Amino acid sequence: MRVLFTTVPAVGHLYPTLPLARALRGRDDVVAYAGPPSLGQLMTGEDVEVLTAGCDIPELAAELARRVDLPSAPGEMPPATEAELFAGVRVDLAFDDTLAAARRWRPDLVVGDTCDYVGPMVAAALGVPYGNVTLGQQFEPARREAHRARAASQYRQRGLSQRAPAFSADICPPALQSDDWQQPERWLPMRPEAHRVPGAPVVPATTGRSTPERPRVLLTFGTLYGAVEVLSPLIEEIVALDVDLHVTLGLAATAEDFGVDRNRVTFEPFAPIAELLSGVDLVVSHAGAGTTYAALAAGIPLVLLPQGADQFSVADRAVTAGAALRLLPGEATPAGVRRLITAALTEPRYRAAAAEVAHQIADMPPATSVAESIALIMR
């Protein structure tokens, strides 16, 4: 089977699909990803082909800014604006390139993520099935309707018929799913995996106190949201507590960018989250789904400071599950951050709730089982 992945070219969209892509390769299926040159850099070491097509996130963002007024302050993107980004701008800038590359490559199946509208349209144009990998919980109704309406207009414009996916591989554990979620047809629950380098084994993070004298706190805001001006005040506040603080630097920052006592903080270069969680007692994060799910899979509670995208709804569900505490933009004062970190480290209920979510995640089918189910669907 020849499987073409067409995810949005950003790590938060790419990484949730990699376990399935690796599992398909383990079956000796032929796998390719279509995307801009930057995607090829992210795929270094993966046993897949990369077809150059489409454009990078900065180009998509620039075009979106030409089409709509964007808010200047951090916050949740309005549903119509988000729909214009994924179902409008990206389709307009990437569909033709991706379709041409797909025609040459001749896939039997196209797979994308929840926000990918290029892939299903390419599949419709080629007359092949399309499958979906979720990014986490179901979108709220306003977002779903905005995406549906904008995508429908793109199908009409190109004379294509929209079809239901052949399957939906869903990485969301039950405790974090939206209240109004209804099981779709050909629903395939799939255990979310902490991102790891190609070939590294899937090894659960060890939990529990890393040092006998003080807890370890991991501060990570992913690859897009970890600006120095965002992390610096958080670092200054956390080092005032008696903790062993580790900070991830994202893709661009260096330790020298932060004017803090280097004896109190360990800066970690960008690394897969699977390499950072062992021995961690608490994760302080922007509530990216990948980071949140990875921490909870290891039974680690979180303090969440959502900045944008779907991070607000991810944080909502983690708080509802009892496994996290949250501060919204404007609420994250130094005293507030310190109060939540202290509570998460000293009150056992947060770790107990995180352990419950970890059990749910462990009970979900692994990507290897999902790949076999997809093979049966495709027969």
How would you describe this structure in keywords?
Rossmann fold; UDP:flavonoid glycosyltransferase YjiC, YdhE family; 2 domains; 13 helices; 379 residues; 6-stranded parallel sheet; single chain; EryCIII-like_C; 7-stranded parallel sheet; alpha/beta; transferase; UDP-glycosyltransferase activity
**Helix-strand topology string:** EHHEHEHHEHEHEEEHEEEHEHEHHH
Count of the separate structural domains: 2
**What is the count of DSSP helices, taking H or I runs of 4+ residues?**
13
Query: What is the fold named in CATH at topology level of the largest domain?
Result: Rossmann fold
CATH 4th-level superfamily of the largest domain: Glycogen Phosphorylase B
* Unreliable residue runs: none
Structural class: alpha/beta
Question: Biggest sheet: strands, sense, closure?
Answer: 7 strands, parallel
Q: Within the largest sheet, what's the order of strands? A: 3-2-1-4-5-6-7
How much of the residues is beta strand, in percent? 5-15%
Q: Please tell me the CATH architecture of the largest domain by its name.
A: 3-Layer(aba) Sandwich
Give the overall form: globular
Mean pLDDT: 88
Radius of gyration: 21 Å
Report the strand count.
Answer: 13
CATH class of the largest domain: Alpha Beta
InterPro entries: EryCIII-like_C, EryCIII-like_N, UDP_glucos_trans
Keywords: Transferase
Protein name: UDP:flavonoid glycosyltransferase YjiC, YdhE family
Organism: Lentzea xinjiangensis
